[in-house]
Amino acid sequence: MAGSSGIAATMTPPGAGRVPMGMMQRFLQRRSTIAFLLCLPLILLVAGFVIYPAFYAIYLSMLNKKMTAFVGLGNFAFLLKRHTFQLVIFQSCLFAITAVMMKALLGFILAHLMHNIPSTNQKIWRGLLLVPWVIPLALSTLTWWWMFDPSYSAFNWILNQFGLDNVPWLGVGWIARLCTITVNVWFGTPFFMIMYLAALKSVPEQLYEAAAIDGASAVQKLIFVTLPMMRNIISITVLFSLITTFADFDIVRILTGGGPQDMTHVFATYAFQVGIQSGDIPLGAADSLFMFPILAFAAFFVLRGVTQRTKEIAT
Amino acid sequence: MSASTQANSLHRQRQWALYGSYAALAVFVIIFLVPPFYTIITSLKSSAEISAQDGSPWMVKNPSLENFWYLITYSNFQTYYLNSVMITAVTVVVSMVISVLAAFSLSRMGFWGSGVLSTVVFLTYLVPPSLLFIPLFQIVGSLGLINSVWCLILLYPTLAVPFCTWIMIGYFSSIPKELDEAALIDGANYIQILTKIFIPVAMPGIIAATIFAFTVAWGAFLYPLAYLYTSNQMVLTVGIISDLIRGDVFQWGKIMAACLLASLPPIVIYACLMDYYVAGLTAGATKG
Amino acid sequence: MKNTLKTTRRSALKLAAASAALPLVHIRTAGAAGKLSIGFWDHWVPGCNDVMQKHVNAWAEKNKVEVTADFITSSGGKLALTPAAETQAKAGHDIMTLVNWDAVNYAEHLEPVDDLVGKLTTQHGSPTATAAYLGKHKGHWIGVPSSSGTQTKPACARIEWFKKQGLDLQAMYPIKDETNALQDAWTWENFLKYAEAAQKDNLTFALGLGGGQTNSDATDLHGAIFASFGAGLVDANGKSLLKSDGTMACLEYMKKLLKFYPADAVSFDDASNNRALISGKSALIFNPPSAWAVAKRDNIAVASDCWTFPAPKGPKGRYVPTQTFFWSTYNFSKNKTAAKELLEHLMQRPLIEERDIASSGYDLPPYAKLTDFKIWEEVGPPVGTVYNYPIRAAAGQIPSLTASEAPPEVAVQIYNRGIHNQMLARLRDGQTIPQVIAWTQDELDGFTR
Predict the structure, then answer these.
(1) CA distances to A226, B6, B16, B27, C228 from B10, in Å
(2) What is the pLDDT of residues B103-150, one digit of tens each?
(3) CB < 8 Å to C281, chain A
(4) What is the pTM assigned to this prediction?
(5) Are residues B39 and B131 in the same domain?
(6) Can you tell me whether residue C307 is helix, strand or coil?
(7) B168, B198, B226, C20: least buried by Cβ within 10 Å?
C-alpha cells in the first residue's frame, strides 16, 4: 500500500521505538493505514451509492423495456426520434440557461444594493432576502402552485383589480415555462446574492479609490475594477447553479407535472415519468444520462475554478 | 467655496443613492416574501372561506388555528414529522462522523491516492440525485428497502457527505501544522489530535456542515417520492403532497399549515444561526 | 343467522381479551395476522373515508391485524402512479386500488382472486360486463370489482340556467324510467348552442383538456364523445382508425365545441371542474355526483340547483363515460390470506350500502343484485338529483371506456397519456386535423415499443 509515501516515512508514529510490536499492530499504527481507514466509510459510501449506480445506469440504459435483452444505443436513438423528448431537451436548456442568467443578474443587483448600505444594517436585510432559500423547495413550490391555480389564482385576483383578464398561468405552454423559471429564480437568487456579496467585500477599497482618482465613472469602476475582481466567484457560482438548475426536479414535478402537453418537462421529471411512473426503467435511465455531458462540462470548469481560487487564497 | 459645494452635492448624491438602495431592497424583500406571506394567510383560513371566493384572497376574514390543530392531532402527519426528524437526525450524525474522519485524514494524514480522492469527493457533490435515482431504484429494490425509511437513511448521506467533507477539509487545512506536530511530539495519537485540537478549533465549520446536512435531509424530495409509498413510511415533503392533496378540493388551508409546520425547523435554525447557515450553504463555492 | 354472527363476534372479542391478557401467547384467527396495508382511493365525497376507515378498523380489531389504510387521491394521477411504482419495486401496499385498465396492466404482479369473486357472485349476482372485461386476465379474476369509486360521469348541470335556455332538465330525465322527445333532442349537435350560451353568460361548461393521468374526467368524456361518433384511434388488430370517417366527423365536431371550452382547459385536473361547479362558475360539468356532494357542504345554493342526467347522444348512440375500480392483492404481498379476508369483509352488502349512503349514492356497486339501493331516489337536494346517475335501462345509455377499441396494452398507454385530450388541445391551438393526426400517429407508434 502507501508505505513508501514520503510523509509517512518522515513521521514515525509516536512511541514506535519503545516496545517491539507485531507486524499487524505496526501495520495498523502506520500513518497511511490509519488515514486510509478513516476514509474508508467515505469511500464505501461514494463507491456504493454514487459511482456504482452511475455505471449501473449506463448498463440499464442499454436494455430493452422488459430488461431481458441488450439493445446497445437503441434507447438513446429511440428517445432522440421522439417529438416529446426533443421538447424535453429544448426545455431543460431553456429552463436552466434562462433561470441561471436571471439569478445571476438579480443576485448581482441585490449584492450591490446590499453593499451600498451600512454594514450594520445589512444583517436584517440579508435575513429577509434569504427566506426563499431557507424554506424547503418542495414546500414553497406548493404555495406557488396554489397561487397559480386556475380558478383560485391569487395573482389573477390582483390582475382583475386592475381590470385585466385572467391568465391561465400553468395552462399555456410558454406561460407555464415562465412560471417554472420564475419559481426557480425566486428560490435561487438569494444564493447568488450571498456569493456576490462575499466577493464584493473582498475587493480592496484602495482599488476604487485609485479608480476614483483616475476619474473613473461608476460604470467604469464596475467594468474595470469590480467585475475582474469578482470574475472567479461569478463563474463558479454560475456553473454551480447551472448544474443544480439543470438537474432540477422539484419545481416542475409539483408545479406542472410536465404539462401542459409536455411543454415544461425537463430531463429529471421526464425520467421520473418514463422510468418510475410508466415502468420503463431502461428508457428512464437513458433519459437521465442525457444530462451527463452538460453536467460534466460544467463540473470540469467548476473544479478548475475552485482549484484556481484555492491557489489565489494560498498566495 | 466651489469645493465645498461639490463635496456637499457629492454627499447629497451619496445620500440619495443610499435611499435608493433601501427602496430597491424593500421592493425585492416584498416580492421575495409574497409566497411565505400567502402561505401564512391561507393556513389561517377555513375551507369554507377559501371556497367562497369572495373578497381578496390576500386577506383572512376569520382567522383560526383549526388547520394547525387538525394537523397536530392527525396521526399521519405526526408519523411524517417523526420520520423526518428521525431520518434527519441519523443522516446528520452519520454524515458528520464520516466526513469529519475523512476530512481529517485527507487534509492532514494523506495516503496513496488521497489527492485523487479529494477531487472525486468534490465531483461526487456535483452529481445530482436526478441522475442516479433510476439505477438506485433498482439497487435499493434489490436490497429490499423500497418503501422503507431505511433506504433514505442509506441514501441521504450521499447527498450530504461529499459537501461536508469538502468544507471540513477547508477548515482543517487552515489549522496551523505546528499545532498537531507539537501534539504528536507530546505523545498524542491521531484520534486525540482530532478530538482535542481539530474539532474544537474547526467548530464553526462543523456547525456549518451540520446545518447543511440537516437542510439537505429535511428538504429532500426526489428520493422519498420515488421510493416511499405507504403513509407509515413517508417523510414530510412527500407526505404533505401525497396525503393532504385530496380529492376533497378545499384542503389548501391544511396544506399551507402543513408547509409552515414543516418549514419551521429550518427557519428556526436559520434565525438562530444565520451566519453559520449561510457559511454552510455557500462555502462550497468560496472555500478552497 | 344474525344471532350466530353476533355470537362469533362476541367470542372473538373474548378471544381478543384473552390474548391481550396473555401477551406472550398470540392467538390468531385463520390466516389473518400481522400487518396489512391498503391503498384505498381517496373518496371525493366528504366523510366517505371515515366510514371506510371504520369498516377497516372493525375488521382489524376483530382479527388482531394491524391495518394501515392510505387514502390516495386520483387527482394529479397519484392513484395511477402508486401501483406503477409499487409493481416496479415489488414492495408497497398489500391491497391496492386499481382503476380501469390497471388490473390488466399489472396482471403479472397480481394474485388471482377467483375464489373470492366467486363467493361475491353468489351473494350479489354477476359483476357487470365492463367489470368482467377489465378485471379478468387469461380467464382469471385478478381484482375484486369494488363499489368504492366505480362510477359513471354523466352531465351535472344547473337547473335554473337550463330553464332559461328553454330546457327543463327535470322533465327530460325525471325520477322515473321513461323515454321522451326531450331526450331525443339531447344530442351533441344541440349541446353546442348551450355551450355557446353558457360561455356568454360567464358560466362556461367546465370541460377539461388536461394532460396525462391528471385529467381522467376529460379523458373519459372525450372517449365517450369519440364513441358516440364512431371514432377511434386503433382497432383491436392494431390498425389505425385515425383517418376513418367516424374520427374525421368527430374531430370536425370538436373543432366547433372546443371554442366553448374554458380558456384554461389545458391546465385542468380532476378537481378543476368540481371547483368550477361548486363556486358557481360553470353551468355544466361531466362528473360523478361528488361535485354536487361537496357543494352540499360548502355551497348549498349551488347544490340544490344541480341535476345529474345522461350525456348527449351522437350519431352512433348515447355513450356515458364510466370508470370501474378494483381491489387487488399483489402477489408479492406477505399477507395475502388476510388481504382476501379483509376484502371479503368490505364487500358485504350491509357495508357496501352503508358506504354508498355515506357517499350520497356516488359508489355504483358493479354487481347485478346491488342496483336497488334506495339512496339514488331519496338523496337531495333536490330530491332525486342523482336518480339518473346509475345506468338506467330506459335512458338508452351505453357504457363507454376510453380507448377500449384498441388492444389492452395499447389502450392503457393511450389512456394514461391522455392522448384524446392532447389531440383536442392541439386542435384548439389551431393545428389542422392532418397535423393532429400526424402527431397522434407518431405517439401511437411509440406505444408499440
Answers:
(1) 21, 6, 10, 26, 79
(2) 999 988 878 888 889 888 888 888 889 999 999 998 998 888 888 899
(3) 151
(4) 0.83
(5) no
(6) strand
(7) C20
- Could you state, in order of their start, the residue ranges of all structural domains in chain A? 2-60, 74-314
Question: Could A82 and C446 be called an inter-chain contact, meaning their C-beta atoms sit closer than 8 Å?
Answer: yes
Long-range contacts of C47-52 (CB under 8 A, 24+ apart): C47/C358, C48/C148, C48/C355, C48/C358, C48/C359, C48/C362, C50/C358, C51/C354, C51/C355, C51/C358, C52/C148, C52/C346, C52/C355
Do B89 and B28 share a structural domain? no
CATH number at residue B246: 1.10.3720.10
pLDDT digits (tens, 9 = 90+) for B223-261: 999 888 888 889 999 999 888 876 556 688 999 999 999
For A74-314, give the CATH class: mainly alpha
Q: CA-CA distance, C63 to C346, in Å (whole number)?
A: 14
User: Which one, of C360, C351, C402, lies nearest residue C44 by Cα?
Assistant: C360
Q: Does the ipTM exceed 0.95?
A: no
- Residues paired with residue C110 on neighbouring β-strands, in sequence order: C330
Quote the pLDDT of residue A23.
65
In which band, very low, low, confident or very high, does the pLDDT at C17 lie, cut at 50, 70 and 90?
A: very low
- Bridging pattern class, strands C34-41 and C65-72: parallel
Residues B170 and B30 in one domain: no
Encode pLDDT of A131-168 as tens digits. 999 999 999 999 999 999 876 788 989 998 998 888 88
- Using H for helix, E for strand and C for coil, what is the string for A78-128? HHHHCHHHHHHHHHHHHHHHHHHHHHHHHHHHHHHHHHHCCHHHHHHHHHH
- Closest CB to B51 among C72, C278, C290: C278
Predicted confidence (pLDDT) per residue in B167-192, tens digit: 888 888 888 888 888 888 888 888 88
